[in-house]
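Handout, section B. The chain below has 294 residues.
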Amino acid sequence: VMTDRMGGFMTRLAKMPKSLRSWEAYSTLKSKLENFEVTLPLLEYLSKPSIKPRHWTELMEITGSQFRIDGDFRLETLLGLNLDKYGEDVEELTDGADKQLAIEAKIKEISERWAVEKFVFQDWKARRIPVLRATGAIIEELEESQLQCQTMLTMRHVKPFRTEVQALLTRLSDATDTLEQWLKVQQLWCSLESVFTGGDIAKQMPVQAKKFNKVDKEWAKVMAKSASDVLVLTCCEDENLREFLPPSFVELEGCQKALDGYLEKKREMFPRFYFVSNPVLLQILSQGSDPQMI
């Protein structure tokens, strides 16, 4: 409405007789209308939803003035700031506000996404111990969200949200690290579980079997807890899980190396085993007490 009325005033000014243009009143009116023509778009920029209290504070600094932005905030206040003198600065301020609004929306989107993202679990064989499955997509999404946070941190207008974005990035990065280590432990546990929970090999490697059984008991508890939590960030931020993973990985890796050494000795004793894969060889050796099965 104001833009239309302003256009009408300028049209009427242009249609005034030439004889009036030398009058001081005409010059004064023309100057006021031209200044307001510059001010009007700035008022529109300042009325956008992206303008927050911090931007009004910045506008005070630009114009060297003080005003209240509470319920007594009026158009008259802005008109008294002579905004036409600070056109470029006001445009830069409002442009920055738009970009900050976009950053704020992206932070909200990422935060809301990871507040509901869930893991999928399935029972391991007949033991009914939950294990992670289909984690590839989750890892990709975590990496994508981290990249988005890193991109935002390079933006000039991220300043009001820098601490929040950095905290979110750290949280996602820590979750990724935990998940990657979690999957390494799970891979080792799954490959060793059938070897050390019974059968002839476990009897021939009692030290490693004892170490594995210790990890196995804790693994069952940790995975049951995670399966009840389900949420990705909640699971990955669980202190018990984070404390459990590093030493368990060391123990299981030690069991795996001992098992590799055990298989190598069997191959040296019977060279035909070199033509057999580890899983098949393990299956053969686990049936050592059953010649017919071998």
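Note. The first helix runs from residue 2 to 14. Compare this with the example in section A.
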